[in-house]
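Researcher: I need the complex structure. Ligand is heme C. Inputs:
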Amino acid sequence: MRKTLSQFLMALCLVFFADAAWAALDASTALEVLKRNDCTKCHSTQKSKNGPAYVKVAQKYKGDPKAEEKLFKHLTSNPKVKLADGTEEEHKKTDFKNDDDLREFIRWILSL
Ligand code: HEC
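Model: Output:
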């Protein structure tokens, strides 16, 4: 009986930690994408640089059911953006190989 209980608790712990590790992996994967694609040159999650902080982006789109679609377009169509010094340039794309990964990344930004 005692053994069964401890086995049960052990299994519960494993499920819990696997879940926590998965969540942490998501955020660190997202940050890695930002670094790899040079997004960090103009963006950070908390502080606006040349581009808006991602927390601001999330705020701007709060409650907008089309938010994911809009950001998807933004990140796939190289729109012209204005930098802090007034110059314009084409916005970068990410190097995601498939749309689902990009959408997951976008949902991460919107969840900040
Ligand atoms: C050269 C600077 C620069 C780089 C590099 C850059 N961005 Fe941006 N980004 C901007 C600017 C400026 C805006 C604001 C555009 C606007 O509001 O018109 C912006 C806006 C955004 C937005 C919000 C769009 C919206 O509709 O509000 C997202 C999301 C974003 N960038 C993601 C990224 C990602 C992901 C990368 C890397 C692949 C990246 N950016 C690289 C300058 C940059």
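Model: Summary of the prediction. Confidence is low (pLDDT under 50) at residues 20-25.
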